[in-house]
Amino acid sequence: xxxxxxxxCVWCVVAFGEAAWVRVWEDNFDWNGGVDLNKxxxxxxxxxxxxxxxxxxxxxxxxxxxxxxxxxSANGRLIIEARKENFDNRRFTSARMKSKAKWTYGRLQIxxxxxxxxxxxxxxxxxxxxxxxxxxxxxxxxxxxxxxxxGYDPQRIHSTVHTKANNHMLGNHP
Length: 174
Fold this sequence. Notes:
By secondary structure, the chain is mainly β. The protein folds into two domains: 77 residues, no CATH class; 54 residues, no CATH class. Strands 1, 2, 4, 5, 6, 7 and 9 form a seven-stranded mixed β-sheet that branches. The protein has a three-stranded antiparallel β-sheet with strand order 10-11-12, with no helix packed on it. A two-stranded antiparallel ribbon has the order 3-8.
């Protein structure tokens, strides 16, 4: 069985005043075990979402999402693992996680080690919490892709802002 891992560490820092940044949230994943459900929630399902993904996104299943300490260190990591296995009528499993914390503005610092391979598409992105604009949640309310790596092109990292006026469905996203 082939599996792939995405290792990430996340901080959110928000500016207060002109001179200082104040850390308001972080997760260093510095333990062995499950994901901290006080900080994270899982999107669950296998309907292909918006990109026709072939995996089933599981809920807090350690085979797909877990925290581990680096061997011989107190430093931790989140491992999101895609696995080739049959699960709820899908051929693969993985995890899709959302932070429970919400921000209007700020600076994100993310450290990530990405897998490579055809068919993989590791991504870190931000979506709005509510539908405030237009008749369609996406793309009318926007999306910010902080990082996407398309598996067949491992040397290129994409960062994109999707809006109602500029998105891949219209073929004009920057």
